[in-house]
Amino acid sequence: MWRDHQLEIVIFVVLFVGVSALGFVAARWRRPDNLLHLDEWGLGGRSFGGWITWFLVGGDLYTAYTFVAVPALLFASGAAGFFAVPYTVIIYPLVFLVLVRMWSVSHRHGFVTPADFVRARFQSPTLALLIAITGIVATMPYIALQLVGIEAVLKTMGVTGESAVARHLPIIIAFAILAAYTYSSGLRAPALIAFVKDTLIYVVILVAVFYLPAKLGGWGAIFDAADAKFAKTASAADGILLNANNQLQYITLALGSALALFLYPHSLTGVLASKNRDVIKRNMSALPAYSLLLGLIALLGYAAIAANITPLKNPNGTNDNNTVVPLLFDKIFPDWFAGVAYAAIGIGALVPAAIMSIAAANLFTRNIYKEYLRRDATPAQEATASKIMSLLVKVGALVFVVFVDPQFSIDLQLIGGVIILQTLPAVALGLFTRWFHRGALIAGWAAGMGLGMWMLYRIPNAATKRAHFGGSAFPLKDFGFDTPKTIYAGFVAVAVNLVIAALLTLILRAAKVRDGGDATEYGDYFADENDPRITATPTSPAPTRAAPDPIT
After folding, report:
1. 3-class DSSP state for residue 28?
2. How many Å separate Cα 164 from the centre of its chain?
3. In contact, 312 and 87? CB cutoff 8 Å
4. What is the pLDDT of residues 145-168, one digit of tens each?
5. Is the Cβ–Cβ distance between 75 and 321 less than 8 Å?
6. Which of 116, 247, 502, 533 is least enclosed, having the fewest CB within 10 Å?
7. Strand 473-475 relative to strand 319-320: parallel, antiparallel, unpaired?
């Protein structure tokens, strides 16, 4: 009952309201003469320095869902849940050069979205439309999952009622506040809030990794308790160590997730808001500090096992493993500190949810609204359209969580990774080469998306009793192999995407099928802050030139 958590609720509400007020104040922080421009509202004026970018990108990537879901996965499955740690380690070297090139060409031409870049690079409105739709679809469940993180905290504090309205009313209020200050402040709001959010999370985790072992008999006892739990289960895929049944899934999921992370439009939004190339380079070198934090967060799942935490139940009677971390804090910590921890999780949802809604809105505005609905839209009309769309995106995510089982949202996040990976050939490889034929990229996208959806459809979820779309671990036996092993569906789908795109490019080039031009040139990928060629206010596509040599 909520009466048993009154101090926790008061602390949570005070911190949440205080941070929300900071979101409204952000409208006056670094305020430009005209906020009605996507460069200002959606990218913070492209002026963020090293510290702001570090907190913004880190706050965007390490979300409230991360805080509860990664430990929940270790609580339920053991070592397989650690996949999130290596993928956030290998991602930064992988994207170091990629993001610098994306920032430069976007800064040079005024691109706001990855689909803007694809539109100019391949001169294909169709391909750009597919990239935009893919980004929006993959982002929507991610926004919904921030609500799942908040809901786990609210359920632990007992403030969610029995009826559907009472259960979701606190979340509706929280997201109404989020929608209001995002509408007025744009990207400046999550950038300013990120300082508070990350500070709270660092404090909570650093205290937890010392306090919890002291209360639970040390890390040795914690690992022994986890080992004993998994030894009693019938599954051969769980345990505190990987085994032959889950190693392939672990490797492909980690690599596939790493490749997908900075393809998400919200990840690129934080990067494009940086003021120069050096900011990106420094951040890619410093962001692995968050991976250390993530590793410590993951261990909370084992600590919950040692503390004999029993998850709360979902309305359908299944275990809600997302509640194990809030329950752990409630059981072990004093009420006042548990309130701070709950606020850290709740506030941790505000930053990524705001950035994600802005990124999705920008994709709609630049690559659907302006391209197909109002080609003569002014910068002010673009900004207004994005602000309205950001509200609709949040409402859509909220409706999804209210009327659909939240556990399905978790499955959809895994599906989102499979979906966004299909933009890799056009977006990531497109930054380095113009060799691929635009028709081949469209065909590769269709093949990868089709195969990925088919694989995901065939994956059940035993825990939720769902026959389809129950996760991303595809059994190799469905490909005809005599093995119990599984593989990450997104890894297979993007591999097929690349093969189709490459083979069809060779065929189309041999047949001399006309390809599009390229509105970018070699020097665009190295442009910096004071480059004299920078397009200040892009209102139309850059002039087209003939397709260049394959490698730029």
Report:
1. helix
2. 27
3. no
4. 787 788 888 888 887 666 555 666
5. yes
6. 533
7. unpaired
400, 171 in Cβ contact below 8 A? no
**pLDDT given at position 234:** 62
What domains can you pick out in the chain, each with its CATH number?
2-23+35-526 (1.20.1730.10)
SS3 label, residue 248 = helix
Beta partners for 78? 239
Comparing CA positions, the residue from 383, 378, 405, 242 lying closest to residue 313 is 405
Q: Are 208 and 300 in contact (CB under 8 A)?
A: yes
Separation of alpha carbons 412 and 321, rounded Å: 16
- Give Cα separations from 308 to 140, 225, 272, 303, 319 (angstroms): 34, 9, 45, 9, 14
What residues pair up with 474 in beta bridges, in sequence order?
487
Longest dimension (CA), the chain: 74
Q: Residue 467 and residue 474: Cα distance in Å, rounded?
A: 13
Distance CA 475, CA 467 (A): 14
The string over 513-549, giving b where at least 16 C-beta atoms fall within 10 Å of a residue's C-beta and e elsewhere, is eebbbbbbeeebbebeeeeeeeeeebeeebeeeebee
Burial class (CB in 10 A: 0-12, 13-18, 19+), 246: buried
Q: Please state, in angstroms and rounded to a whole number, the distance separating the CA atoms of residues 289 and 293.
A: 7
- Please state, in angstroms and rounded to a whole number, the distance separating the CA atoms of residues 45 and 33: 11
| Pairwise CA distance, residues 26 & 180, whole Å | 12
By three-state DSSP, how is residue 520 classified?
A: coil
Three-class DSSP category at 485: coil
- For residue 198 the two structure tokens come to 């990350």
Q: At which residue do the structure tokens 């250390």 appear?
A: 292
Neighbours of 372 (CB within 10 A): 10
The total of other beta-carbon atoms located within 10 Å of residue 150's CB is 26
d(CA 282, CA 474): 37
CA 238 to CA 243: how far, in whole Å?
Answer: 8
pLDDT at 539: 38
Of 36, 27, 21, 315, the C-alpha closest to 164 is: 315
Q: Which two tokens stand for residue 322?
A: 């997302």
Interatomic CA distance for residues 520 and 247, integer angstroms? 42
> Which residues 6+ apart lie within 8 Å of 446 measured at CB?
none
Q: What digits encode the pLDDT tens for the residues 409-439?
A: 556 677 788 999 999 999 999 999 999 999 9
> Which residue bears the tokens 């294909």?
124
pLDDT of residue 163: 58
Q: How far apart are CA 224 and CA 507, in angstroms?
A: 58
CA distance 411 to 10: 33
